[in-house]
Design a protein that fits this description.
The complex is a heterodimer of chains A (238) and B (606). Chain A is of the alpha+beta class. In chain A, 33% of the residues lie in helices and 28% in strands. Chain A has one domain (3-235): Nuclear Transport Factor 2, Chain: A (Roll), CATH 3.10.450. Chain B folds into two domains: 11-282, no CATH class; 326-597, no CATH class. Chain B is built from three helices and 39 strands. In chain B, the strands form five sheets. Chain B has a nine-stranded antiparallel β-sheet. Chain B has an eight-stranded antiparallel β-barrel with strand order 13-14-15-16-17-18-19-20. Chain B has an eight-stranded antiparallel beta barrel with strand order 2-3-4-5-6-7-8-11. The longest helix of chain B has 12 residues, at 11-22. Chain B is elongated and about 90 Å long. Classes of the chains: A alpha+beta (238), B mainly beta (606).
């Protein structure tokens, strides 16, 4: 399902079943933008353009993650950005780079997957939204995700070493949840991610093609960088 | 070949020997063909050079590579059905070409082969090393003969159509091999005439589909002599023509063409999706970075990139296997000898103990409350007294004092105990893995200890056969468990957990290989080791291997083929000490090769 389709459905869902055909023409329009642009068609158009740009940025983020282009992903973040993942806070360029270039790359994390059978997000959970501030300098958004997450086998066995030869040797599972994202424009007027939180709703022991899935528990980060060389800069309370 | 001492030939030594055959071209026991004599050809390759050939009448050719000035060399040529194959070297270089042309379609597959490559592995990362100069490199180019017509839309391509096949080949020079193509990227092969030990080895391979009956194949004996074998096979007639190129274990240059006749010895299942035809070579996947231990300097993870020239899926374990002397190993063992972990983890059921044990059988209390003596022929005699599920007492028969030991036991078949423990204060550190058949009064022990003549941190094992003596059980005088070849040819996948599966290929009476699956269940990376098989009962066996010249680890499993389950133990040592652990897996029978009759002592010419 495309982003646009999701947007249309989520907007109509938000507006209720009685939403008119006329309202449907404003699909994608967020709450803040609606308030700020009331009576100001130029601002309304500008905000819609910003929202479109942010959706494209997020689409680019997901595509880069799917293809393992972690350098491109890191370049989308502001220098002082933060990422929250599995109870860990990765701060600033170094922390974000550590998470994406090292941890996610080794763990083949971020590859898009269909939801594990029986673990599909609800319609409510699949709703995305983008709210652009009236000054068009910052924005908040939420987008659903359904991805593969993994960690390399922590073993020196020959099986693991051989699996690494063909890019495997990683324990993977499925995660679904919501990206909670904050954006900010830099001095050049380019949107950057200033904060991204993986709000994980469910995890399952599942690979594409498997006929069933079982829920799993993944331990939250317990060791910070540098003790864990791929660990977070800070630990967050559950 | 793990134990052969190959000379580190220098580029100068290699170059000097190559110069002796550049002009003559390869030899052949069969008569050369002359299909190309007097012809000119222009071969255009995808992502590779254009090769412009002019063939003279006296097995001489001139070739212009990539538009460069033509050079002359000797060549050899053989044909198989519509395929014409020729091979030559280039003067002044350590490089040559093996070329297969389909005369019906004008499609061509070109192998560029070269030595003294200087290729670095793990470049810029810990464990960087340079490949041996004697290791033949290959790069495959797909292309066509330019006839002036429109370029063909489809070329030859990689394939998984050979996967799972086994063939016996006999060449025109008398050389016989068994070749089990159980991976899309490797071959498990046995030299039936070159070697006397009936051991199987693994080398990286490529498989190229020409048409539904014709396949091009190669293997390079990486980490061994580095020699290269490349041929085209007709699977209808089961015939081959090809080339052998490189240096053998005596440092002799072999460069000859061959013809051969084959026999299909079996076909095991290959498990990827039915619409996966293996068109993308496995080496195209970027190798994953090894895990980073907390606190260690992380290895830079490899970003996705196009495979480098010559890339292949080659396991080179001995490159990172540290050498320890016997004394160093024992010193480490004195600091730490661990049986089944420690603390709460040691008490946990095997299913809770990690990647290698998630599908293990549960531990058993089959020994609890028993007292018995194991009397092995010409070997140890040990008394046992077992109080609970994890602790036993043993002593050498006749000793007064009992020795406490941590142990784990399974019931591998009805009333058949399978247990292991460390031999206390042993030097070198030793352990036993013991099968006790309380129905038939038989016992077998795998007596394991640290150290081989090559490494202090490799394991050694030997089986001893005997009986169990206890009240109410009659011990046989003559019947014993015994070594067996009943498993030879069988292939089982073993899933140690839902994340870890390896296929065992029981490829000879004294050796095996194991294959790792990709996420798409393609059979990929592969390696091999010596092993033994002991028959305990119909369908129940001990399988024991030491990953020699690899990581030195020993795996000692009881295989119950009736239940398609195995359970057992691991024994290994390193600078961190000696460890006895548990392992076990769910099995699937993947198929069988009919190869057992090829083994055993043979009459050989003097």
């Amino acid at each position: 399902m495309s982003i646009l389709n999701k947007t249309r459905r989520s907007f109509l869902f938000k507006m209720g079943a009685g939403a008119s055909a006329a309202l449907a023409a404003t699909t994608g329009m967020a709450r803040s933008e609606a308030a700020a642009s009331a009576g100001n068609p130029a601002l309304k158009a500008a905000l819609l353009e910003e929202e479109k740009a942010l959706r494209q940025l997020h689409q680019a983020y997901e595509q880069a993650m799917d293809k393992g282009l972690h350098d491109e992903v890191v370049a989308m973040f502001a220098p002082d950005a933060e990422v929250v993942f599995n109870g860990g806070l990765f701060k600033h360029s170094q922390g974000v780079s550590r998470l994406y270039r090292e941890r996610f790359r080794c763990g083949k994390t971020g590859i898009r997957m269909p939801a594990a059978p029986g673990f599909e997000l609800t319609a409510e959970q699949q709703r995305d939204s983008v709210e652009v501030s009236a000054d068009r300098r910052s924005a908040k958004a939420s987008f659903p995700y359904s991805i593969q997450v993994g960690v390399p086998f922590q073993t020196e066995s020959s099986l693991a070493a051989m699996a690494r030869l063909h890019g495997e040797g990683v324990r993977t599972w499925w995660e679904g949840g919501i990206y909670q994202v904050t954006y900010r424009k830099n001095a050049a007027g380019r949107w950057q991610i200033s904060r991204l939180a993986y709000d994980t709703l469910s995890r399952a022991d599942y690979r594409t093609g498997k006929s069933y899935a079982q829920p799993i528990v993944v331990e939250r980060f317990a060791v910070r960088f540098p003790e864990d060389q791929q660990g977070p800069d800070a630990l967050l309370q559950a | 070949m793990h134990r052969f001492k190959y000379t580190q030939l220098t580029p100068e030594q290699i170059g000097a020997k190559l110069r002796t055959v550049v002009d003559t071209g390869p030899r052949s026991a069969s008569s050369f063909s002359a299909a190309l004599s007097g012809k000119t050809l222009k071969i255009v390759t995808q992502d590779g050079p254009t090769l412009e050939y002019r063939f003279a009448a006296n097995r001489r050719l001139s070739v212009a590579v990539g538009g460069a000035k033509p050079v002359s060399a000797g060549y050899g040529e053989l044909t198989l059905n519509q395929i014409v194959f020729f091979s030559h070297l280039l003067p002044g270089e350590q490089k040559g070409y093996n070329v297969f042309i389909d005369q019906k379609t004008n499609l061509a597959t070109v192998f560029e082969v070269w030595l003294s490559s200087g290729i670095k592995q793990n470049a810029g990362r810990p464990g960087e090393f340079t490949l041996d100069d004697r290791e033949v490199q290959r790069q495959i180019y797909f292309g066509y003969v330019d006839t002036g017509a429109q370029a063909p839309a489809k070329l030859h391509h990689y394939t998984n159509r050979m996967t799972g096949k086994g063939l016996h080949w006999k060449q025109d020079n008398g050389i016989e091999t068994l070749e089990l193509y159980v991976s899309v990227a490797n071959t498990n092969f046995v030299e039936l005439t070159r070697h006397v030990d009936d051991l199987s080895y693994v080398s990286p391979s490529d498989y190229v589909l020409v048409d539904d009956r014709t396949v091009i194949y190669n293997r390079t004996e990486c980490e061994f002599s580095g020699i290269h074998t490349c041929f085209v096979a007709d699977l209808y007639g089961v015939k081959q023509v090809g080339v052998r190129f490189g240096f053998n274990d005596k440092d002799e240059l072999e460069y000859y063409l061959f013809k051969g006749d084959g026999q299909v010895v079996g076909q095991i299942a290959y498990l990827e999706n039915f619409d996966d035809h293996g068109i993308k070579p496995m080496f195209a996947a970027a190798p994953a970075a090894p895990p980073t231990a907390p606190g260690a300097t992380p290895a830079a993870a490899a970003a996705p990139q196009a495979p480098v020239k010559g890339a292949r899926v080659t396991y080179r374990p001995v490159r990172t296997f540290p050498h320890m002397s016997d004394a160093e190993m024992h010193e480490a063992a004195l600091k730490r000898t661990s049986a089944f972990g420690s603390g709460a983890a040691a008490q946990a059921p095997p299913q809770a103990q990690g990647l290698g044990t998630g599908n293990n059988l549960p531990f058993s209390d089959i020994l609890v409350g028993k007292e018995f003596t194991l009397r092995f022929d010409h070997g140890p005699v040990r008394d046992y007294k077992v109080g609970d599920r994890t602790k036993l007492q043993y002593r050498n028969h006749g000793d007064a004092a009992w020795i406490d030991a941590e142990y784990r036991a399974y019931e591998g078949d009805d009333n058949l105990a399978w247990f292991s423990h460390i031999l206390a204060d042993s030097k070198p550190r030793a352990s036993v893995q013991v099968a006790v058949d309380f129905t038939n009064g038989l016992a077998t022990s795998i007596e394991s200890h640290m150290g081989t003549e090559y490494y202090g941190n490799e394991t050694t094992y030997r089986p001893v056969f005997g009986v169990v003596e206890m009240p109410g059980l009659e011990a046989p005088l003559y019947v014993r468990h015994e070594l067996t070849d009943e498993l030879v040819g069988h292939c089982f996948s073993w899933s140690y957990s839902d994340q870890t599966t390896s296929m065992h290929v029981y490829s000879s009476p004294h050796s095996m290989s194991w294959v790792i699956f990709t996420g798409a269940q393609q059979m990929g990376a592969e390696w091999c080791s010596p092993c033994i098989y002991v028959k305990l009962r119909p369908g129940v066996y001990i399988f024991c291997q030491n990953e020699e010249a690899c990581n030195g680890n020993q795996m000692i499993e009881l295989l119950n083929t009736k239940a398609s389950h195995d359970c057992g133990f691991t024994f290994n040592g390193s600078a961190r000490g000696v460890s006895l652990g548990v392992t076990g897996a769910i099995g699937r029978h993947i198929g069988k090769f009919d190869i057992v009759d090829f083994y055993g002592p043979k009459k050989r010419s003097a």
